[in-house]
């Protein structure tokens, strides 16, 4: 007897085999679809729906996927998101065309070409002391009710329908990513190497604000949530952005505290998103309570060795993602996409513990035909 999509996801994340491998696509900025492929999918499927954006944030470029398209994609999850404060959204909607987008932290994006935005506004790029952090005037107001006013009703509706797993994602940027959003990546990585105390203090301050928002978000969700998505991009194509030693000394305690904060307030599983080759840290992730790891970037270093990942970690963590977005999805044929899906499922699927998706959000260079080939192949080859 077929399971409901929610039952399918809950079975997999509890390390058991469902009726088929769950599909995670169309929710959050780590598992979503950019606007160009979204439009193409709608056209191929004959679906008429508006071109809306998640988080009401066009500069992010990620589509708010309509329900008909979510069903065409066989997605087993539905998202609940927060919003930037209404005042921030209003300011950005009314700002001069092509001017910088500024978020509620004071960091932001500038337009590198029409319609393409890059995170290059770093308000704390010159900060090096506690006093400079104290003096920063634009720390966010996490108590603004317009951030989460819609969350309770959205989550309750999904829970009452009881069809899809609820994956909830507040737009935080976790402490490491937010720190380099505030300082610039090169500057903050240099500070981590040269002045670990300052780097730790900045991340700890950021974590205080993140926990305040997460606490309010979780209170609005109540019991109506299955997975909480958080994340910090720690990997590159070949290795880690920081050494394992530096991670364990500076960042792991902050991650552990944040995950403990979440688990004290919800029974939901914690999905942690980190691009790149993070294989050296998976045991650390398990130790601090991460339940699901995303996106399993198979083009990056030792993350490409899926049999080794499954053998070493499959009983302790659920893998989510795994379909290559570096070469296969953007440049492969639909037939090649199908074969890659079959290959990954054959390795990662046995025993459950796997949810299929693209490595990160489906980007604008991915043909819509390949997105449909991916999800249709998962339907075909993912049966247990």
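^ structure tokens above, recovered residues below v
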């Amino acid at each position: 007897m077929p399971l409901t999509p929610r039952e399918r996801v809950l079975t997999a994340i509890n390390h058991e085999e469902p009726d088929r491998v769950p599909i995670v696509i169309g929710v959050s900025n780590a598992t979503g679809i950019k606007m160009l492929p979204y439009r193409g999918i709608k056209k191929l499927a004959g679906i008429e729906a508006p071109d809306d954006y998640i988080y009401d944030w066009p500069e992010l470029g990620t589509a708010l996927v309509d329900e008909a398209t979510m069903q065409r994609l066989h997605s087993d999850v539905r998202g609940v998101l927060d919003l930037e404060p209404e005042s921030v959204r209003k300011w950005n909607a009314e700002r001069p065309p092509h001017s910088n987008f500024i978020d509620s932290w004071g960091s932001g994006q500038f337009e590198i070409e029409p319609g393409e935005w890059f995170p290059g506004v770093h308000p704390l790029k010159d900060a090096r002391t506690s006093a400079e952090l104290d003096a920063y005037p634009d720390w966010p107001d996490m108590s603004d009710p317009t951030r989460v006013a819609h969350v309770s009703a959205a989550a309750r509706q999904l829970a009452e329908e009881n069809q899809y797993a609820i994956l909830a994602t507040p737009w935080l940027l976790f402490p490491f990513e937010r720190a380099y959003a505030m300082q610039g990546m090169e500057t903050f990585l240099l500070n981590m190497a040269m002045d670990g105390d300052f780097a730790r203090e900045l991340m700890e301050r950021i974590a205080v604000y993140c926990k305040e928002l997460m606490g309010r978000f979780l209170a609005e969700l109540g019991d109506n949530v299955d997975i909480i998505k958080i994340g910090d991009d720690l990997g590159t194509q070949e290795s880690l952005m920081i050494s394992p030693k530096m991670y364990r000394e500076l960042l792991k305690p902050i991650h552990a505290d944040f995950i403990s904060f979440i688990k004290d307030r919800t029974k939901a599983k914690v999905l942690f998103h980190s691009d790149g080759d993070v294989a050296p840290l998976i045991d650390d992730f398990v130790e601090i309570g991460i339940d699901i790891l995303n996106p399993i970037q198979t083009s990056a270093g030792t993350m490409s060795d899926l049999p080794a990942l499954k053998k070493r970690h499959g009983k302790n963590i659920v893998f989510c993602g795994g379909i290559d977005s570096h070469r296969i999805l953007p440049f492969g044929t639909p037939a090649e996409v199908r074969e890659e899906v079959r290959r990954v499922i054959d390795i990662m699927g046995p025993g459950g513990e796997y949810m299929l998706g693209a490595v990160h959000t489906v980007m604008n260079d991915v043909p819509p035909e390949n997105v449909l080939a991916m999800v249709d192949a998962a339907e075909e080859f993912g049966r247990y």
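The chain has a mean pLDDT of 96.
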